[in-house]
Amino acid sequence: MSQSTKKTNLSLFSLVCLAIGLTIGGGIFILTSVLTKDLGATLPYFYLLASVPMFFIIFPVAVLGRYFPTNGGIYFYPSRLVSPRFAFLVTWIFLTTASFGQVPLFTLACSEILFQIFPFGSKEIWAFSILTVFFLLNVLGLKPVLFVQNLLVSVLVFLLGYSIFRFADPRAIPQISPDSFPSFVSGLKTISILCFTFFGSNAIIELGKESGKPKHLLKAFLWAFPIVVLLYFSFSFAVSTLGPGDPTLPPSDYLFHLIRSRLTQVEYKLFLLGGPLLAVVTSLNGIFLIQTKSFICLIEDGWFPFLNNERKSPSYLKIFTIIYILSTLGLYLQWNLETLATYSTVGWFFVVLSQLFSLFVAKKILKENGYFPKLFFRKSITFVTILGFIFALLLTGILLFRLNEDRKLLGLIIVSGFGFFYSYLISKAKDWEPKEQSERKQEILKLYLESEDAND
User: Fold this and answer.
1) In 369-436, where does DSSP find H-type helix?
2) 289 Cβ partners below 8 Å, 6+ apart?
3) β-bridge partners, 10
4) What are the Cα distances from residue 301, in Å, to 44, 103, 417?
5) Residue 369: pLDDT above 60?
6) Which of 51, 207, 349, 381 is deepest in the core (most CB within 10 A)?
């Protein structure tokens, strides 16, 4: 059995930890710091409001993974249920911009935190060391990666809970009234920003074939999502009890100055290690894993013929080495990392939109073959999926609008253009054609039947 299809039989706990680690990133600390200065005690309620559209977006994707478990779902679902060439293009956008932008940005964020605690060497050396550690960890295999992820996420949740308990002051809970909230337009803008902090848990469907029971993919989301919502609300609520900070500080430093004033020096260092650092590290670890699964899926489908060997699946070592080299190059160049990370988020939304659309196509295929799983065919699932598609479309539009306002949309068009041009060249040079529609349908049916057997 090849490495790309070998099952690890992930436990529900591992999937929950992976989902939490992928969701809680540095954004919660940066955005809470930036927004609490203006929103104050109303911020926790905006986190709650932002969780609603994200639930509608992610839940149907988890349902798709539950009934059609596979690896590399970023590419696989749209390639089988929408269009192989479209699936390649959106996966190309995500993988290239994540490698050159998101991963280097995360490693630099980790190095910034570590440098505050251990001020020796340089931030660049710290960043390169972090990247190398995760490369070596992933090369060892999925089990060591998940063991580390489970451990780090458990510590993250515990220390976040401890920090919330430590600096929250029940006697200083601020009073809020309708007048405390910003205008309707400002409120919608805030919600749209905070929505992105809930993204990530949908990525666990990338490990569908590794799960012992595919229904655990859906259960993991239903466990992880409320835990994340509770942590976000509790953390921002605890921050609101700290009182006003120094108004002269830049927004990014506002929160950390407030927390530093409440904790001892040792506690503050523990907060940095167990909060911002672990949040970014667990996201980084998860991104490495996701990139690899999708990359392998692209290779096995023939998009990179120079890496494909029909007699055996591509090795993890080769794939991780390629991703490591690309990310190291991105770290060295440091070319508009935040912009590239935003492109990666746009690519991720393109993927989610195609996955939500895929759910309707999958339902049609099951219906044509006389399969009617109860959950999948509920009217409520259809309603949630439609709402999720609308919300995802709106958020994608907001991202694209901001990129256009900042005059950064051209870069995304160039990245997309390279992907389109490459796919055209491969199709012509190798006389390569995607699998026939009937063959793709059979793959989907096979996944469904395998999932029913596994769940039994």
Assistant:
1) 379-405, 409-429
2) 18, 138, 142, 145, 206, 207
3) 211
4) 45, 25, 21
5) yes
6) 207
Residues 6+ apart with CB under 8 A from 43: 32, 35, 36, 236, 239, 240
Question: Taking 70 as the threshold, does the pLDDT of residue 298 lie above it?
Answer: yes
**Distance, CA of 437 to CA of 435 (rounded, Å):** 6
The CB-side HSE value for 410 (13 A sphere, CA atoms) comes to 2
Give the start-to-end residue ranges of the domains of the chain.
12-455
What CATH number labels 12-455?
1.20.1740.10
131 contacts 327 by C-beta, under 8 angstroms:
yes
Distance, C-alpha 339 to centroid of its chain: 17
Write down the pLDDT at residue 4: 42
| Spatial separation of the C-alpha atoms in residues 387 and 224, rounded to whole Å | 21
Structure tokens at 251: 């927004």
Query: Half-sphere exposure (CA, 13 Å, Cβ side) for 424?
Result: 6
Segment 374-388 shows an average pLDDT of 93
